[in-house]
Amino acid sequence: MTKVQSHMTMSLDGFIAQPDDQVGELFEWYEAGDVAVPSANERVEFRVDAASAPILKELTEHCGAIVAGRRLFDMTGGWDDRHPAGAPVVVVSHTVPEDAAERWPRTVFVDGVAAAIERARQIAGERDVTIASATITQQALALGLVDEVCVSLVPVLFGEGVPYFAAFDTGHLLLEDPEVVQGKRAVHLRYPVRRG
Amino acid sequence: MTKVQSHMTMSLDGFIAQPDDQVGELFEWYEAGDVAVPSANERVEFRVDAASAPILKELTEHCGAIVAGRRLFDMTGGWDDRHPAGAPVVVVSHTVPEDAAERWPRTVFVDGVAAAIERARQIAGERDVTIASATITQQALALGLVDEVCVSLVPVLFGEGVPYFAAFDTGHLLLEDPEVVQGKRAVHLRYPVRRG
Q1: Where in the numbering of this chain does the Bacterial bifunctional deaminase-reductase C-terminal domain appear (chains A, B) (predicted)?
Q2: Is B172 within 8 Å of A157 when comparing Cβ atoms?
Q3: A4 pLDDT band (50/70/90 cuts)?
Q4: Which of B172, B188, B194 would you mutate first to test chain A, the one with the most A CBs within 10 A?
Q5: What pLDDT score was predicted for residue B1?
């Protein structure tokens, strides 16, 4: 059964980036150990601690498609069409870049969050869909389309920045107790979204 | 050695209360189990799960003085001079209530965060000082007066409310990797503040 999950690395005070979009100390856990975890993009190498390695492997190996916002796509140059998790990316965007067919042949552009997640589900097959942008996560949570919220919680207070979560009109959103993995420079938390 | 720590129960998106100051689902963990933890205030009873009990006992037993803001003091009626943690309360306040001597004989009123923490240290002796208000925590963190940041992290997204942390002028505040205890309806995280 395909699961739709979001995964972000977040400061203890809720930020996934500084106001200038830089990640500051957030990604230190990706190179805080000596266990190599393969990435599909040769420009990205993970070397994590022994506790973080299985969860990172699982997030990577189980991922059948990634849903990202257009802003993240633009900021990363579309990961050169090779996202480190190794899966095709579905970009939520009103427009398709002119050179998309040549530069990002594996990447799909879909207008609207619900449609993008549906498309990602088709691509993922038996594997999971991972949402990689905060704004898309927020919209998908409000639409009830997220099965699991994953957070790699980093021991730092940013004070200000780009938040993982945002206000929504639907009242409090209840989660189940999480799976907890204590890694180096990140505590990994996987919260199933409560249903019914 | 007296340690100055803050402890708050916080939603995954960083809030310690709703916009109307109510705690919503946050305090469910205080009654989510069948292990009774004594409180110094007979109106407050804790019944927590087996994993949460030792950390709650430790927070309570090691607490030699509590520092609270005036707003929290007013909201709780000054805990009737008997804070559940059993320790005297030092209230940061510009003014002293007229009936303080009769209604709150154990409670101390001090003008200013640094002075209040210093006074609480004297009262605590060998035991710890616990900061129980978010605004006081924020000011104490900015002043470098906090040794440990404790969070009972609850699996709920509020969307809006009263935040635990706030912006500060001193850049990112780095914490050490936390002690982690996985309780029912709360993951307890104790972060030493990084020094130097």
Answers
A1: 3-167
A2: yes
A3: very high
A4: B172
A5: 74
Contacts of A167 in chain B (CB under 8 A): 159-160
In a 3-state reduction of DSSP, which class is residue B101? helix
In chain B, residues 7-66 whose CB comes closer than 8 Å to chain A? 11-14, 24-25
How confident is the model at residue B49, as a pLDDT? 97
* Tokens coding B192: 């030493």
Asked if the model's pLDDT at residue A102 lies above 80, the reply is yes
Interface test with chain B among A148, A157, A160, A187, by most B beta carbons within 10 Å: A157
User: Is the per-residue pLDDT at A25 higher than 90?
Assistant: yes
- Asked if B132 contacts B66 with a C-beta cutoff of 8 angstroms, the reply is yes
Decide if A177 touches B, using CB distance below 8 A.
yes
Long-range contacts of A36-44 (CB under 8 A, 24+ apart): A39/A84, A39/A85, A39/A86, A40/A82, A40/A83, A40/A84, A40/A85, A40/A86, A40/A87, A41/A79, A41/A80, A41/A82, A41/A83, A41/A84, A43/A80, A44/A84
The answer to whether B46 and B30 are in contact (CB under 8 A) is yes
Distances (CA, A) of B107 to A22, A61, B4, B99, B115: 45, 57, 18, 12, 15
Q: Is the pLDDT of residue A151 over 80?
A: yes
Contact B13/A178, CB-based, under 8 Å?
no
Of the candidates A80, A75, A77, A74, the one whose C-alpha atom is nearest the C-alpha of residue A93 is A74
Q: Which amino acid is at A9?
A: T
Nearest by CB to residue B13, choosing from A14, A24, A182, is: A14
Q: Which helix (H) or strand (E) holds B71?
A: helix B70-75
Token duo for residue B134: 């978010």
The list of chain B residues with pLDDT below 50 reads none
Beta pairing, strands B156-157 & B148-154: unpaired
Asked if B176 lies within 8 A of A159 by C-beta distance, the reply is no
Q: How many CB atoms lie within 10 A of CB B86?
A: 15
Q: Kindly list the structural domains of chain A, giving each domain's residue range(s) and its CATH number in brackets, ordered by start.
A: 4-192 (3.40.430.10)
Say if the Cβ atoms of B173 and A191 lie within 8 Å: no
